[in-house]
Amino acid sequence: MVKSYKEFRSDRLDYYYNAINSIILGKQHPASGLIPASTAITIHGNYTDAWVRDNVYSIYAVFGLALAYRRIDDNTGRAFELQHSVIKLMRGLLFAMMRQSHKVEQFKQSQSLEHSLHAKYNTTTGDTVVGDFEWGHLQIDATSLFVLALADMTSSGFNIIYSQDEVDFIQNLVFYIERAYRTPDYGIWERGNKINHGQPELNSSSIGMALAALRAINGINLFGAQGGPSSIIHVLPDELTRNSTTLHSFLPRESNSKEIDASVLSIIGFPAFAVDVPELVSRTRNEAIKKLEGDYGMKRFLRDGHQTALEDTSRLYYNAHELKIFEDIESEWPLFFTYLVLEGLFTGDLEQADHYQRKLLPLIVESSDLSSKDTSEQDWEESIPLLPELYYVPAEHIDAEKRNPHSQKRLPNDNIPLVWALSLYYLGRLIREDLLSPSEVDPLGRRFNSSKMTRDTIIQIVVLSEDRQLQNELSAYGLETQTLDQLPSTVSVLAPEALSDVYCGLGLNSKMSLTGRPKRPIGVLGTCRLYRIQGQIYAFTPHFIDNDEFYINSDPDYLVSDFESELRFTKENWFYHGRPTLVVLLSHDLLGTNPKKPTISMDAPKKHLLNFFSNLRCGSACNGTVPIKLCRLAETINTSNIQSLDYLIKKPEINWERILHGAHASRYSTTKRKLGYSERKTQANTPGHRTPYSTGSGGRTPKRINTTFNGKSLASPINKLHDETYFQELASALSKLKSNDDITFKLKAHEDSSNTNTNHRRAGSIMDPSVDENTQFHNKPGSVSSASPDEDQHSINDMLSLTLGDTSHFDQAVDSLNASVNLYDQIDILQYLVSCKPSSYYINSLDASLRELLEEVYLKSMRLQYWSIARQAAGLLHKNVPCLTLNLTDLIIRQKQISIGSGPQEYLISMPVSPETINKMINEHCSDDVREGPVVQEIIIYLGKLIRTQPNLFEGILRLRTHYIIIALREEISRINHTNEEEAVEHLMQLSPFELQSLLNTILSGPTMSNTNNQIFIRDGPGGLLMLPTQPSEDFVPTDNNQHRCIPLLTDQQAQENIVIRVQSAGYHSGNLAKVNINGTVLEADSRGIHVWALDRKENIIMERASFDTHISSEESIEFAKFIHTLSPGMIIVIACKDEFTEHLGEEAKRVIEDMGSQKIRHVRYRDSYVFIGEKGNTTDILEEHRLSTDGPTGNIEKVIQYDNPISSSILQEITPHNMHHCFPHSNGCWLRRRKNDGALNRVSSQFFPQVWSILSNSRGFMIRNHTLPREPTVLEMTPEEFNFALAVESYLGMFSDPAERQIAVELLTVIHELVIETKDSKMKDKMNTKVLDLSGMIVQSIETFWNKWSGLNKMRFEKNELFKNGMRYQDHRDKAHKLFFDLPSKGTESTYSYLKQTVYSVLT
Predict the structure, then answer these.
(1) What are the strands of the beta sheet with 907-909, ordered from one edge?
(2) How many CB atoms lie within 10 A of CB 187?
(3) Which residues neighbour 358 within 8 Å (Cβ) at sequence distance 6 or greater?
(4) SS3 of 1199, please?
(5) Angle between helices 850-864 and 823-836 (to 10 degrees)
(6) For residue 793, what pLDDT is reported?
């Protein structure tokens, strides 16, 4: 008789109940509820303990069967029994962990191994079974799996949590796992590094499971339908984002020592479903299958010796050289086929599920077979399919298996069944037989993560004004704002610190001594939410715009850049209900306005900041990539994401009134500190410090031309000390500063000497900040005089000689400090003073301590934007950026190592570190120049920002060496400005934070630096000329090779003699744009007013640009006229107007434009469109166009200008070191530049390290001068794509001190791989097997061949030249030959490839 479906289903459920009851529930301890991993005790260990991970996986089959019984009208009580068996186990694990709540509390702060929860417990009692250091307990994936299962089971109606104490503990488990992205652990195999020597690693499987758990538990009410707000678990969005970003950057790699691991299957599929990028899921799965799959299951990872016949069981660890012996005989685990089955079932890929189900069938061991083999303990009534832990190759078949992998029969080990594997097998069978659905096991829908549709998030921005005066001034710019007292009574705005204070109550439980969330800054995603507390709506300003962090936030341009980065980050990572709402409070200090004056008057950077906020009205930011909506705060309430925090402030430990009072007091005190003098608030701004129209070399405090980065000299700006404008500028700036503030400075201000004859001014001291005790202030004109200012003039020649640390001239130095009127003098003298006395030493004559005086100079330098002084003062004060560790972590979690210092002092950071640790490293390893520490902090911050927003800039880079990056920055400045190293270093130190960040962005765009086309540069400040990264023209299609290209001025061979300029303007009603197209590259204006671009065709096309809002201010019109006057005759001037510019365009400005040849400027009216192209000094050859506001935009007017190249590459009259390269093939410095930068950044191709592994495995090793990288044990320990191998090679190539030479070595290894490995040349390969490849020697041989060839071709000309009077031998011209060789293209007839290839053939044939 045929059974009905109901009867069939009932029979199948009974079958699985009997099987699961016998195999799993039969082992569950009746008191503790825990399950042993196995009943086996073998030479590999005692499996009778209860592992957290094994218990959770083991109970999943029971969980699934309980849900299946719940489907039917069960009157047997099995659904209830199964459900409460699940609850009993989960509570058993909960109790075991709660007994270690003290560890959870400690781990939240330390992330230390000794503070981690234990990984296994006594099955009977739930007690710990081994000591803290006797096992690899830190296994974040296990704790995360418990939290994940808790979320699933609670959502399915299983009530596991009973009390508020238990809720608080689970909330603290969230804090325990939320920093998985930066916490190395022992991972799923409890061993960390594959050698098993006790070294934890960052593991993808741990990070992925933590991410899945955090996503799942967020918002879950642990009391179920009966719960209230206090039983809901909360996860802050920024922690989710960091874990997600780290995971996606790691995969498919598992860790540094394991290039792939089968455990990643649990991350891309069941149970985590943590990856939301379908391509990455597919790539990770394919990588695991390709490298790990066998007929009997999957290897855990490559060269895994666990339970192989060759493993030495007398020790836990492996020797590095022995890992190679496990290759091709690694044990294979059927467990991982069950993951692939479940992934197929949950994602609807039944073909995959059925395929691996079929592969499992021959691996099953029937329980009846075990019963016949003297296994009385495992005596089942009927035969049940069991899965062994693993299959291994018998000792007698090992040689045959190595010769022909997958050819030998394998045997199961004694651990049968592995309950974890069998549980997942049964779960898959329940779903495949339609007794259970994936939606029941995954009630939260995590399986759809990779198929979710992306949405275009609109960011709501609320701009507030500090007071009504500022509000009125901003409204003149078209920026409508509200003041705090104009907000509705039900809405308040607080600083982000208040939100951190409230969140400290999350999980706080005094009974278990749990302090709740550690007080860390709340990220931008957290402050983009609104919060409801006691019926009031609270918004919190973002932490990143808080103006008390380091000197970098005193740079308005940097603030704009930072704001744009955070907008991009928010758009890309907002996955929550409602829109993100960003609240910004604008202040007088932030915008550089004067609260005592009725109008806005500010310098260009401040205008840039204000224009940025004004341009938000257009509905987009970041070049149109981020949609935004500028609105009032009350308008955002219905569309924002709002969280209630009432349950937190009800806790007796949280005093909400005190937090509110502190927040309001902080706002008041913040304003006062900015107006006064304080250690925290030191970033106020002062107008008047820039003088771009002065006759000097720049508009800021002049450079010390003798300063070098290694601390050999630190000179005052003697080239400007006798310049009248220098003191006038400082006097003007400080007078404006004092008009803003009530500060009483202790040191003399620059205006004190403004009326003094310039010839009588004391110049700054010249001193060496190196650690050499004999270093002195040099006795030369310009040194600080020891005489008081009232003494006779002859005292000027009475010079003061100082040695750092020598206290004999301390009193004279104090007198000089009293007399000094120069900020450079003051900081140099203070550096000497703090080398003699502690910073707390009190100077009675100045009524201040040394630290207070340093703080004063620090404050002045930031307000006046003298960045070199600010960096020097920051170094002396040991200032540190609070967000430094966050940016450092952002780099490390994306597998970028950071080094600090150089030479023996270089320290490598490969794991996240605490703020105290990184600050100590910087202080200890950046001691050559006191300014190096602050610059290193800046570089780390900028690199962190860039890797978050432009991660593709870092492709091919493993290690970021800050010292060499500084060298690359110096080289770039030196190349652009034609300066020596010392001058370039001072230029570098004078760069504003934004300029430094822009220059760093330039050198990171390495793949485009070999373009032989000229570049456009922007002249901005004493740092000289910066390459300007902008968007390409509309017809420029990015490719892998050019997506980061900077502005190519000459785009093809035909353009070598011409500059093609197209320009267009549109008033407010006609399109509201102003843009110029130079040889195919578009530069767009981003603010209202008149925009000027000036091109100098005589100096490699250097460009200056400026913007003037002549609609809002007549001062802007005056500044425009001054700017045009400063431009040299012959410069090409392009003018385009955006929005409106005529309102306050004065007579002088119009006359200046007419003097350049304009005929139409006086016809332009309100919001008309206008463009102009001309040459200063040539009024006849101009182009201009004017359109009324009702007639639309101007056309794209075009002008072709001949490129004026002063150097002809034809016949050279006289050969000099500067033009000798024209006698050789060259790329005009482009390839040399690229190789220097790529070498400093250690950039290589994606396949470089596997290629090097192939070369190394087929040779005896590499040699760089006297340093060798041997084949053994390197290739025996590491696999081709292992991250640790890449790091080893990277470190070895660091033996080349010249970055360009290092890149030539990279090219050489690529050539060897191509000629020997890829072509499979047996003769060359045989010879290479017997040789240690001398990389440095082969490079020298290639360069010598190049030099001999071309010096021979130019022999007749060289013999007559003074440079070659001693002959043309390579040894006599080594440095020049290397520089010329490094500038060759990488491919072509005359290229590095052709010469390296020739050398490889000569060495290996």
Answers:
(1) 907-909, 897-900, 959-961
(2) 27
(3) none
(4) strand
(5) 150
(6) 36
Amino acid occupying residue 51: W
Q: What is the DSSP letter of 516?
A: -
d(Cα 686, Cα 866) in Å, to the nearest integer?
12
Rounded to whole angstroms, the maximal C-alpha distance in the chain is: 125
Contacts of 412 (CB under 8 A, 6+ apart): 365, 388, 389, 390, 391
User: Mutual orientation of helices 78-98 and 52-71 as an angle, nearest 10°?
Assistant: 160
Rounded Cα distance, 765 and 780, in Å: 9
Q: Tokens 């079929």 correspond to what residue?
A: 358
Q: Write out the two tokens for 268.
A: 């891309």
User: Quick check: helix, strand or coil at residue 789?
Assistant: coil
Alpha helix positions (H), 1294-1384: 1299-1312, 1322-1328, 1335-1353, 1355-1359, 1374-1382
pLDDT of residue 945: 87
Q: CA 422 to CA 415: how far, in whole Å?
A: 12
Nearest Cα to Cα of residue 612 among 558, 683, 546 = 558
Number of Cβ within a 10 Å radius of residue 1035: 7
Q: What is the pLDDT of residues 9-25, one digit of tens each?
A: 888 999 999 999 999 99
Q: What is the 3-state secondary structure (H, E, C) of 1073-1139?
A: EEEEEECCEEEECCCCEEEEEEEECCCCCEEEEEEECCCCCHHHHHHHHHHHHHCCCCCEEEEEEEE
- Cβ atoms 187, 263 nearer than 8 A: yes
DSSP H helices in 261-319: 265-268, 278-292
Query: What pLDDT sits at residue 104?
Result: 94
Residue from 553, 552, 700 nearest 1020 by CA: 700
Spatial separation of the C-alpha atoms in residues 481 and 710, rounded to whole Å: 49
Contacts of range 317-320, beta carbons closer than 8 Å, 24 or more positions apart: 317/195, 317/196, 317/197, 317/198, 318/194, 318/195, 318/196, 318/197, 319/195, 320/195, 320/1273, 320/1276, 320/1277
Q: Which two tokens stand for residue 475?
A: 């409204």
Phi first, then psi: what are they for 6, rounded to 5°? -65, -40
Does the CA dihedral 1388-1390-1391-1394 come out positive or negative? Answer: positive
- The tokens describing 515, both together, are 């302090």
Tokens of 720: 């400007």
Alpha-carbon gap, residue 911 to 1018, rounded angstroms: 38
| pLDDT reported for residue 785 | 36
Length of the chain: 1405
The CA angle 564-567-570, to the nearest 5 degrees, is 150
DSSP one-letter string for 359-370: HHGGG-EEHHHH
In this structure, what token pair is assigned to residue 957?
């880079």
Helix (H, G, I), strand (E, B) or coil at 30: coil
Beta strands in 552-693 (DSSP E): 581-586, 620-621, 626-630, 642-644
Residue 798 token pair? 């009475």
- In the chain, the amino acid numbered 165 is D
Residues near 658 by beta carbon (within 8 Å), at least 6 away in sequence: none
CA distance 529 to 532: 10
Going by C-alpha positions, the residue among 550, 471, 880, 861 that lies closest to residue 685 is 861
Amino acid at 371: S
Low-confidence ranges of the chain (pLDDT < 50): 374-378, 380, 669-742, 750-799, 1009-1056, 1100, 1206-1212
Contact 240, 214 (CB under 8 A): yes
Q: How far apart are CA 706 and CA 828, in angstroms?
A: 14
Cα–Cα dist 68/87, whole Å: 16
Query: How many other C-beta atoms are found inside a 10 Å radius of the C-beta of residue 756?
Result: 12
- Which is it for the CA torsion 404, 408, 412, 414, positive or negative? negative
CA dist 11 and 5 (Å) reads 10
